[in-house]
Design a protein that fits this description.
Blueprint (H helix, E strand, L loop, with lengths): L2 E5 L4 E6 L18 E5 L1 H14 L5 E5 L9 H13 L7 E6 L1 H13 L6 E5 L2 H7 L4 E6 L2 E8 L4 E4 L9 H18 L1 H9 L1 H5 L3 H21 L14 H10 L7 H18 L5 H13 L11 H14 L5 E7 L2 E6 L3 H13 L25 E2 L3 E2 L1
Parallel strand pairs: 2-9, 3-4, 3-5, 5-6, 6-9
Antiparallel strand pairs: 1-2, 7-8, 10-11, 11-12, 11-13
Helix pairs in contact: 2-3, 3-4, 4-5, 4-8, 5-6, 5-8, 5-10, 9-10, 9-12, 10-11, 10-13, 12-13
Bound molecules: nicotinamide-adenine-dinucleotide and zinc ion (ZN).
Length: 390
């Protein structure tokens, strides 16, 4: 049973990976807790409610249904849930279990952070993306009209209970969307995980239990280590944003409706990889392996109608919000990345164009298309943040 400690100034806890863990969840809810509020969606409750219900037998608990969907991850829904808690007798001794995909982990976590100024939380993520990412690390929150995840709090849970059995019912598309975040972990910090994703491709897609448990453990270990070193997104936590700079622009440009988050990140990782290669910072062989593995776990929805200019404009507007700095996480080799800002616009444009056209295709090497690269000492100096990697 792998267990990964997350150690933060706010709280130290474990992310635990174990098949069948949902039905043993009560062991992680302190005996002293009052009413346990389970925040979930109807689909998840239909699938796994019986297992959690049996775990909570003998405890006082109430299930609160949240409609689900990015457009409902809003403050107004948090307020509705909080009112239901008060009506049901919730108080400072109550505890929230956020039981579902990343949206439920975010909204349930935020509810716990603010209800009566903060009550304990247990995260039980049920999508791959939530298990390897959203539920670990204490970031909670909701969307504003002006942007995603702009309103929230850091609220670390008592435990993150990861039951890989839950993934059996996940749609193929949602599962693959989560896999892209696992690929991200391999690129930023774990060459062995990356090799596993390459060599066991068919088993991973078939959700073979042994390999699924291994990739979840590897990804959770990385998230737990990074968050423990840097809870509040200083330099180190930023490495988790590999693929997210352009990925977020793509999600926003398509109104969060064409691409799942992981799919947009897949595209963003390609753009960042080509950007790194264009800057002669990433060897051809590693560049090809990263692009290939992303394609092998695809496809992502068609990129028709996506204009480079529109994506660049999105990055420019992010720049304004981020005090003039757009950060890119660029691989130097598989397993090591560095965070840079101040990348010239023309280089970003070329990388996005290449990612959009997919010209590298199944060509033998990235060098076939990346012929504009210049030696590093001839290019404008990037504003380099501390070197991160193995
Ligand atoms: N807080 C963080 O650090 C962090 C990190 C990454 C992502 N996120 C957030 O996570 C959200 C995306 O999460 P997601 O990808 O899990 O989407 P999601 O929560 O919408 O879940 C996807 C769908 O799968 C359903 N589902 C959940 N578990 C299932 C299962 N086991 N079997 C079948 N269906 C199941 C859900 O009800 C939903 O319809 C975004 O809002 C994103 O901002 C947060
Ligand atoms: Zn992500």
């Amino acid at each position: 049973m792998p267990r990964f400690p997350v150690v933060t100034p706010q709280r130290s806890y474990d992310a635990i990976i174990e098949r069948g863990l949902i039905s043993r969840a009560s062991g992680y809810v302190p005996a002293s807790a009052g009413i346990v509020f389970v925040v979930t969606t109807e689909d998840v409750w239909k699938l796994f409610g019986a297992a959690l219900e049996s775990a909570l037998r003998g405890r006082s608990f109430k299930v609160l249904f949240f409609p689900g969907g990015e457009e409902r991850k809003r403050l107004s829904e948090v307020e509705k849930l909080a009112e239901q808690m008060v009506e049901a007798g919730g108080d400072r001794t109550s505890l929230v279990i956020a039981f579902g995909g990343g949206i439920v982990n975010d909204i349930g976590g935020f509810l716990a952070s603010a209800f009566m100024r903060g009550i304990p939380l247990v995260q039980i993520p049920t999508t791959l993306l939530a298990q390897v990412d959203a539920a670990v690390g204490g970031k909670t929150g909701v969307n504003l009209v002006s942007g995603k995840n702009l309103f929230g709090a850091f609220h670390q849970p008592l435990a993150v209970l990861i039951d890989p059995d839950a993934l059996a019912t996940l749609s193929d598309r949602e599962y693959r969307a989560g896999l892209y975040e696992v690929i991200k972990c391999g690129v930023i910090r774990d060459p062995e995980l990356f090799r596993l994703l390459e060599s066991r491709h068919d088993d991973v897609l078939a959700r073979g239990p042994e390999v699924v448990d291994r990739i979840i453990a590897a990804a959770v270990r990385i998230k737990a280590e990074v968050v423990s070193a840097d809870e509040r997104e200083g330099d180190l936590r930023r490495i988790l944003n590999f693929g997210h700079t352009v990925g977020h622009a793509l999600e926003a440009e398509t109104a969060y409706s064409r691409f799942l988050h992981g799919e947009a990140v897949a595209f963003g990782m390609k753009a960042a990889t080509l950007l790194a290669r264009g800057a002669a910072e990433l060897p051809d062989a590693d560049c090809s392996r990263i692009l290939d593995v992303i394609d092998d776990y695809g496809p992502i929805p068609a990129l028709d109608g996506i204009a480079v200019d529109r994506l660049l404009a999105r990055l420019q507007s992010d720049k304004k919000t981020l005090k003039g700095k757009v950060h890119f996480v660029l691989p130097e080799r598989i397993g090591a990345v560095r965070v840079v800002s101040g990348v010239p616009d023309n280089e970003i444009r070329s990388a996005i164009e290449e990612a959009l056209t997919g010209l590298w295709g199944r060509m033998s090497s990235c060098a076939a298309v990346v012929n504009r690269r210049r030696p590093i000492n001839n290019r404008p100096q990037l504003n380099k943040l501390p070197h991160i990697g193995h």
